Give the backbone structure.
Amino acid sequence: MTLHDDIDGRLAQGWGGLAPNGVHVNVVLARRGTPTAATIISAFTTPSDGYTPVLASLGEDQPSYQTLNPPTVILSKTRAQEGIHEKLIFGAAQVGIAQAVLDVVADGHLQADQEILILVSLWVDGSAADETKIKEAARQAAGSAVREAISGRTTAERQSLVDQRETLRNPFYDGH
């Protein structure tokens, strides 16, 4: 098992799929009993209108829900719009994120227990419509983010950003 003692407070991001059925996530890992974990619990227990945190739970129907371990709190970055958007966030994206966490457990990087908490900040485009693509994109995005948060990036990857700092781009920046 490749577990890390210094996992508390590690952060990463991940993207999966293509817009409008793509998913972006930010991930924070916390060890139970730490201030980071307390912050995740606080975020979970303070919902606001349109931004209801979800404890990832899975089952064929509501009475058979099981809590995902490691516990994973999902917070939407955008207001859940009633209808398909809300269903995509609380259904397809939740399943994809849970699958990603279980993939990381199956790979031996985390244990399926309550010692580590995962916070996933989730973005789903308001014009998304394909449940299967959202589930797959959420699995891809969360899987890469959790793995990066656990293992970090390679020295070469970090140096590449430093070397390219003058020409870096972002899809939301159109300047020169």
